[in-house]
Amino acid sequence: MIKSILPSLVKIHNESKPIQTNKVPVYMRLNSSVIEFFKAQGAGYQARINDLLVDYVTLAQAEPASANRPATEISGSSVKPEKKLELACLLFKKYHSQCFWHLRRDIEIGHEHIPIIVAGLRRHGGRSGFLEAAELCR
User: Fold this and answer.
1) Is the pLDDT of residue 66 over 50?
2) Residue 17: pLDDT above 70?
3) Which of 48, 69, 70, 132 has its CA 20 to 30 A from that of 12?
4) pTM for this predicted structure
């Protein structure tokens, strides 16, 4: 009986796996304290490490482009940069444990952090975070 069910279970299992073509298996040697820190937060530690690296790349790519332009140009809108920065600080505090757990809570938010806040809200903030990221982009 089990032998007759096994092929259909394997087929269902293989069909239900999501295909992630943008991820590449990599072997890395990390400090044991880093792995212990992420594993202590529960299952999915590799995904959290990946999210942290994605956020870092987003921030690193945003810095060179914004370094040569004034803050009013970066925003791309009529919203004053001070108001945008104030909103970014509020959203960072509001969503810290959900979206920005990998950053220190007491970090001083600057204009260079806005792209990382928007990306984090869109990726991990749910519907409300996504809508507030849109508000931050105006």
Assistant:
1) no
2) no
3) 48
4) 0.48
